[in-house]
Amino acid sequence: MEFSGVDLDTGKRVFGFTNCGTIANKINMQKESFSVEIPDNWTSAEAATVSVVYVTVYYSLFIRGNLLPGESILIHAGSGGVGQAAISVCLRKGCEVFTTVGTEEKKEFLLKRFPIKSRKYFQFKIR
Predict the structure, then answer these.
(1) Which residues, at least 6 apart from 86, have a Cβ–Cβ distance to it below 8 Å?
(2) Domain total for the chain?
(3) Among candidate residues 115, 119, 72, the one with its CA nearest the CA of residue 94
(4) Residue (of 6, 3, 45, 7) closest to 20 by Cα position
(5) Does the pLDDT of residue 122 top 70, yes or no?
(6) Is residue 75 part of a domain?
(7) Are residues 61 and 10 in the same domain?
(8) Is the residue at 111 inside a domain?
(9) 43 and 76 within one domain
(10) Tens digit of pLDDT for each residue in 39-55?
(11) Which pTM does this prediction carry?
């Protein structure tokens, strides 16, 4: 369902989701589809990986989980794609984030990746 490529009408590089088959080199965008312009510093391959993790986070946390600003959340495997997307969205929503990671390197990666003013927002469990 996710795709990346060039919008033939505008010539812009785009990525997004559509409900039509995307194992092809051309798709016809449906009205239920959405696309976003690819940032200049991303490749099309990188952009194609973004849609599914953010849709997974949005659907699971906000549609099904009804997560509200200010609530606490435990995110397992915070250094993975869905984990990073969840941390990013939850911090932006003002949630208190707790996460698990498997190594010290992953812990340091997350601390460098996210603009956290205080380490109190992260509780790390090295598995």
Answers:
(1) 57, 61, 73, 75, 78
(2) 2
(3) 72
(4) 3
(5) no
(6) yes
(7) no
(8) yes
(9) no
(10) 999 999 999 888 889 98
(11) 0.74
Spatial separation of the C-alpha atoms in residues 21 and 42, rounded to whole Å? 24
In a domain, 126, yes or no: no
Tell me, yes or no, whether 60 and 110 share the same domain. yes
* Enclosing domain of residue 76: 52-121
- pLDDT for 16 beyond 90: no
Residue with tokens 């659907």: 59
CB pairs under 8 A, 24+ apart, for 99-103?
Answer: 99/74, 99/75, 99/123, 99/124, 100/74, 100/75, 100/76, 100/124, 100/125, 100/127, 101/77, 101/125, 101/126, 101/127, 102/77, 102/126, 102/127
Asked if the model's pLDDT at residue 90 lies above 90, the reply is: yes
